[in-house]
Amino acid sequence: MFFLKDLPSQQMVEAYAAPCGADPARITGALVMMRRASLLIRRLDSYFAAHGLSQLRFLVLIVIDREPQRQSLTPNEIAQRIDISKPVLSRTLHALEQDCLITLAASRTDGRSKEVFLTAEGRQRLLDILPGYFGILSEETAKPAPD
Fold first, then answer.
1. What's the confidence (pLDDT) of residue 121?
2. pTM across the whole model
3. What is the 3-state secondary structure (H, E, C) of the chain?
């Protein structure tokens, strides 16, 4: 996350960027983008927390649900789609299972592997929070870029 509340002045950016051969306007644009993204992430964190989820838990649910031709994914497939480590995913899956939002079952094709399924409660939780999630994204992208 980008924690800088006040962005550096244009004069300061120019002073640092010039010796590096960087375009000050691009640097300023990147800093503004990082700040806006940070604020969006914080807003989403609060939204998900109010609904008993984290961004990671939400992502696991949505990744499973977004595959219309499949009802489940393996933990390895989920880890690849979200780009997180297997230990972090394992803890997250355990928490989601305890909350009855997913079920883990032995794979029908590979006895050494598991399949992760959304429960009816997990699918409903996802459907309940998607309108607000998309609302937040829509609001944020409708805001004009700061000067």
1. 97
2. 0.83
3. CCCCCCCCCHHHHHHHHHHHCCCHHHHHHHHHHHHHHHHHHHHHHHHHHHCCCCHHHHHHHHHHHCCCCCCEECHHHHHHHHCCCHHHHHHHHHHHHHCCCEEEEECCCCCCCEEEEECHHHHHHHHHHHHHHHHHHHHHHHCCCCC
